From TrEMBL:
It is a multi-pass membrane protein. Residues 22-419 form the Ammonium transporter AmtB-like domain. Keywords: Ammonia transport, Cell membrane, Membrane, Transmembrane, Transmembrane helix, Transport. This is Ammonium transporter. It comes from the Bacteria. It comes from Streptomyces genisteinicus. It holds the Pfam family Ammonium_transp. The keyword Transport applies. It is found in: Cell membrane. Gene3D superfamilies: Ammonium transporter AmtB like domains (1.10.3430.10). The keyword Transmembrane applies. Involved in the uptake of ammonium/ammonia (NH(4)(+)/NH(3)).
């Protein structure tokens, strides 16, 4: 995502109503992704944690919005300081911005750019929440969001997209958030779960999704919103780059879903709905950094690699013993790494910039830049997030009590339940337990490790 200077689009000094309207629509689509993620995650947890999972995403809409207006936009996209952070007094409280003042080098107002980037900032910490399902205090989570976006997200966004940011100036390509969003969130998730530990009963008790239709609904809405996330990241419609990104988003997502399902059938013997949803999200993640650099055929390759590798990666938690509840590490961290690194192989040099990958005569230079970006963000987010979680864990406590975790965090933290069956009625026969559907991949990997 270009922060202030476009490689191919000429500077236009006049406000474009078309581009402004397009970007407002894209901003709304990205906003939709946060409640979509809530549905996606909410269906994947057990019924006793459904509302808590929904709220862990929804609260980000409140907290991050306020912090972004107060100082987040200034830190991420203000005047560069030392290539590490930004700051502009006019951006504090968004109080010094003219109504028709344009974002540098573009035909959209600063306000429109700010609100588009706000939706990215809201979504990113919400992604982390899936790794922490069933066991985190809501107050501690809310405080973690506020600290994390301040210490991790705002600086990293400046590194990657801010004019003067060190990764941006190096030439690292991240069209819409492979490093700043997905690797950042995935590494943070790993750092936090290493601090707070496993759920009660991990690898022993069944922890199957309670509502696969809800998962599929969330995945479909994420896919829909992702077009705004990706195609909107060129900040306009003047040169066709956003259109290429739109096409590549669809193509890579389809390839990843099919690849995940094929892998799942070969390895575990079934095509699951959870696999289809997870494969689609893996493809969306992987194409996010790469889609403005590759051709549609390259997008197929990116999606197919992500589908297979992410499907393999979700089983690593059983092998290594870290409890990534909803596979944030396996899908977002691994998918973000794949998409970011494959830019170094599949970049054609003819879409968003002239940087070409290894398969298009560009040698290893761009791959090296991508690797630096990947591992710099991964290392910083992992360490900083673990330290923030450790401080909260040792002070106010990050986890609910064991008894509360067993009984369910919905009732304890929110005094509500997702489903009320008190008026459903029915005789004794209707109250017989019905076995829940098996999460084929998770069950198979767990049994394999236990054996």
């Amino acid at each position: 995502m270009p922060p202030g200077i476009s490689t191919l689009a000429a500077d236009a000094p006049e406000l474009s109503a078309a581009n402004t309207g397009f970007m407002l629509i894209c901003s709304a689509l990205v906003m939709l992704m946060t409640p979509a993620l809530a549905f996606f995650y909410g269906g994947m947890v057990r019924v006793k944690s459904t509302l808590n999972m929904l709220m862990m995403s929804f609260i980000s809409l409140g907290i991050v919005t306020i912090l972004w207006v107060l100082y987040g936009f200034s830190l991420a996209f203000g005047t560069d300081s030392g290539s590490l952070i930004g700051w502009s007094a006019d951006y504090v409280g968004l109080s010094g911005i003219g109504v028709t003042e344009l974002w540098d080098g573009y035909t959209i107002p600063v306000y429109v750019f700010a609100v588009f980037q706000l939706m990215f900032a809201v979504l990113t910490p919400a992604l982390i929440s899936g790794a922490l399902a069933d066991r985190v205090k809501f107050t501690a989570w809310a405080l973690f969001i506020a600290l994390w976006v301040t210490v991790v997200y705002f600086p990293v966004a400046h590194w990657v997209w801010g004019s003067g940011g060190w990764l941006f100036e190096m030439g690292v390509i991240d069209f819409a958030g492979g490093t700043a969003v997905h690797i950042n969130a995935g590494a943070a998730a790993l750092g936090v779960i290493l601090v707070i530990g496993k759920r009660v009963g991990f690898k022993k008790d069944p922890m199957r999704p309670h509502s696969l239709p809800l998962v599929m609904l969330g995945a479909g809405l994420l896919w829909f919103g992702w077009f705004g996330f990706n195609a909107g990241s060129w900040l306009g419609n003047d040169d066709g780059v956003g259109a290429v990104m739109f096409v590549n988003t669809q193509v890579a997502t389809a390839a990843a879903m099919l690849a995940w399902l094929i892998y799942e059938k070969i390895r575990h013997g079934a095509f699951t709905t959870l696999g289809a949803a997870s494969g689609a999200v893996a493809g969306l993640v992987a194409i996010t950094p790469a889609g403005g650099s590759v051709s549609p055929l390259g997008a197929i390759a990116v999606g197919a690699v992500a589908g297979v590798v992410c499907a393999m990666a979700v089983g690593l938690k059983y092998k290594f013993g870290y409890d990534d509840s909803l596979d944030v590490v396996g899908v977002h961290l691994v998918g973000g790494i794949i998409g970011s690194l494959l830019v170094g192989f599949f970049a054609t040099g003819g879409v968003q910039s002239d940087a070409a990958g290894l398969f298009y005569g560009g040698g290893l230079e761009q791959l090296g830049k991508q690797a630096i970006g990947v591992f710099a963000v991964l290392a910083y987010s992992l360490v900083a997030s673990a330290l923030l979680a450790l401080v909260l864990h040792k002070t106010i406590g990050m986890r609910v009590d064991e008894d509360d975790e067993i009984s369910g965090v919905d009732q304890v933290e929110h005094a509500e339940t997702a489903y009320d069956f008190s008026g459903a009625g029915g005789g004794a026969a209707s109250r017989k337990a019905v076995p829940a559907p098996v999460d084929t991949v998770a069950a198979a990997e767990s049994k394999k490790v236990d054996a």
